[in-house]
Write a structure and sequence with these properties.
Family: Belongs to the thymidylate kinase family.
Enzyme class: transferase
Largest sheet: 6 strands, parallel
Radius of gyration: 17 Å
Helix content: 40-55%
GO biological process, one term: dUDP biosynthetic process
Bound molecules: adenosine-5'-diphosphate, 3'-fluoro-3'-deoxythymidine monophosphate, magnesium ion
EC number: 2.7.4.9
Pathway: Pyrimidine metabolism; dTTP biosynthesis
Length: about 240
């Protein structure tokens, strides 16, 4: 289905491996766009919010602009229990929950775009496929539940070698936070590249990366205005 509408907001996805600086850049980007008078909102998948330092935070000033699909949804709570190792969930089943967590946000996402608000998302279906396929699930199977989600206008992949990521405080105790697994995830991310992707070197300083992110985003916002919102991811 295609939604007809002019002057819409752009859908920008920030992807990358752990510690690449996604959350840091997402927050700086939304602040910067709002400073420039551009309507912008931050979404995050899975629907939970984490500070740049890595700790999960319930109440934070930044939360005012971080929409959560949510920890308060029952799906968000199951995902949170899984990631913190409080609960084991079968690989296919958790994959479907991550996807459902995106689908439950689509109505809200579309209404923001139609209202002219640019939406920045911290991880999307690419993370969904990369992490599940890295566990050994079939890549084609992994893509199916997310087929038909709103297609991003731009995917910025923040690329940081796993060795560099490790230096940024080391990996924590959550599921997936090991070096070998992160390398597999990166390889699968590379297989998912398409025309909407732009790969940025994430080894540079926070401010330098921010400048590059902003440049790409400003161009995309301009170019997307007259384009239709497409609900055809991986179709
Ligand atoms: P992600 O969301 O991709 O896991 P974060 O934004 O949470 O990454 O950043 C991970 C850690 O690295 C944080 O401690 C953050 O302050 C730090 N960091 C983020 N960007 C940079 C950068 N460009 N250079 C050095 N350290 C960074
Ligand atoms: N993750 C994230 C998945 O396994 N599937 C998904 O669909 C998504 C969106 O959840 F380890 C994983 C990736 C990462 C964890 O971490 C969420 P952050 O630091 O909160 O983004
Ligand atoms: Mg993050």
């Amino acid at each position: 289905r295609i939604l007809n509408n002019l002057g819409r907001g752009a859908l920008i996805v920030i992807e990358g491996c752990d510690r690449a600086g996604k959350s840091t850049q997402c927050m700086k980007l939304v602040d910067r766009l709002e400073d420039q008078g551009i309507k912008a909102r931050l979404l995050k998948f899975p629907g939970m919010f984490r500070s740049p330092s890595g700790s999960r935070i319930g109440q934070h000033p930044d939360m005012s602009f971080a929409y959560q699909p949510d920890r308060s949804t029952s799906i968000g709570q199951m995902i949170n229990a899984y990631l913190t190792n409080a609960k084991d969930i079968e690989d296919h089943a958790i994959h479907l929950l991550f996807s459902a967590n995106r689908w439950e946000a689509m109505t809200h996402l579309k209404s923001l775009l139609i209202a002219g608000t640019t939406v920045i998302i911290d991880r999307y279906a690419y993370s969904g496929v990369a992490f599940s396929a890295a566990k050994g699930l079939d890549l084609k199977w992994c893509k199916q539940p997310d087929v038909g989600l709103v297609t991003p206008d731009l995917v910025l992949f923040l690329d940081l070698p796993v060795e560099e990521a490790e230096k940024r405080g080391g990996f924590g105790g959550e599921r997936y936070e090991t070096k070998a697994f992160q390398k597999k995830v990166r390889d699968i991310f590379m297989d998912l590249r398409d025309r909407s992707w732009k790969i940025l070197d994430a080894r540079v300083s926070i401010d330098e990366l921010h400048a590059r992110v902003l440049e790409e985003v400003m161009r995309t916002i301009e170019n997307s205005k007259a384009l239709q919102i497409r609900e055809d991811l991986w179709k």
